[in-house]
Amino acid sequence: MAGADPASKPTGLGAWMVLTIILPGMFMNVFDFFAVNVATPLLHRDLGSGPAALELIVGGYGLTFSLGLITGGRLGDRYGRRRVFFGGMLLFALASAAAGAAPTSDSLVAARLLQGAAASIMVPQVLSIIRVSFSARERRVALALYGMTIALGQVSGQALGGIIMSANVLGLGWRPIFL
C-alpha cells in the first residue's frame, strides 16, 4: 500500500516473541524488589540481621538500581540492547543465586546491591526494545503488557513470596524467593 504510514504496519511475530523473553526479566526485577519485604522477619531470625542490615537488604537494591539506570540505558545504546539485556539478566541470575546462598547478613547485602546494579542494566533495555520492535499502534499493546507485568510482579512479590516462604520449600526458608 503506497504512501501508508510505516508506523501503522503490523509488527512481525518475532517482536512478540522477543516480548515474551524480555517481560520475564522485568517481572523478576519487580518480584525481587517486593518479595524481600515479607522476608525480613525470617532474615532477622536466620541471619541475625539487625535493623541496619535489613534496611540495606531491602533498600540497597533500590539504591543501586536507581543509581545505575542511566548508565544501563547508555550501555544498551552503545553495545546493543539485546546483548546488554541478556548480560544484565545473567548478572541478575548470578546475584540472585548469591543472595539465596548468602550465609551472613553482610553477604546478603552485597548480593542485593549487585542484584540492583544488574537490574539497572537489564530494565532500561526492556522499554528500548519495545520502542524499536513495535509499530506505534502495536506498541500500545506491548506497553500495556509491560505495565501488567510490573503490576503482577508487585502483587506476586508479596503474595507469592509469602506463600513460598510459608511452604518452606526443601527447608530453605527465605532462600527460594531469590532462587
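(the above was protein one; protein two follows)
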Amino acid sequence: NPIELKLKPKRWRITDWHDMLMSETWKIRNPNEKLPQKLFPNLIEINEPLTQWKIFQPRDTHALARWGQAARNCVGSATSYFKGIKQCKHMIILVMLDNQPKYTIQTTFDNGEMTVKQITKVENGRQEWQLEPAEHQSVELILNQALKIRSSQLS
C-alpha cells in the first residue's frame, strides 16, 4: 500500500467511532481481494509550488475500505464499487493533497475511452463538500497530468 492512512482521530466523536466500527465490521465480513491496477500501479506524485498531489489506485478491497473511511464516503463500503473495479466497469482513483485524502474519482469506459463519471471531495454527502465547476476542472487537470506521467513511464 503506497499510502498508509491515519484513521485514529485525536479525539473520538460518536460519528468517528461509528465510522471506524462500520469499516472494521465490513473488513471482517469481506475478504481482502486484490484489485486490478490498470492506470496507476504505483503512486504518482505531482509537486506544485506549495502543493503536493498524490494519485493512486487502491491495491485491494481493504485499502479501498480504509480510503472510504478516511474520505468519509461510501466508496469503501459499497460492494458495487469494488465489484465494478474487479469487472473493469470503472476505476476508482484516489487523490491526496498535501498528504491528506482529498478527492475520489470514478471513471468509466466506453469503446476504449475513459470518462470521469464523478469526482467527490471528503464527506461527499454534505452539499458544501460538492465540487464547484472550477474545482472539478482543476482536479481533472491534475488527473490529466498524472496520466501524462504514467504514459511517459510506459514509453
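Reviewer note on protein two: Helices lie at 14-29, 61-71, 79-86, 133-154.
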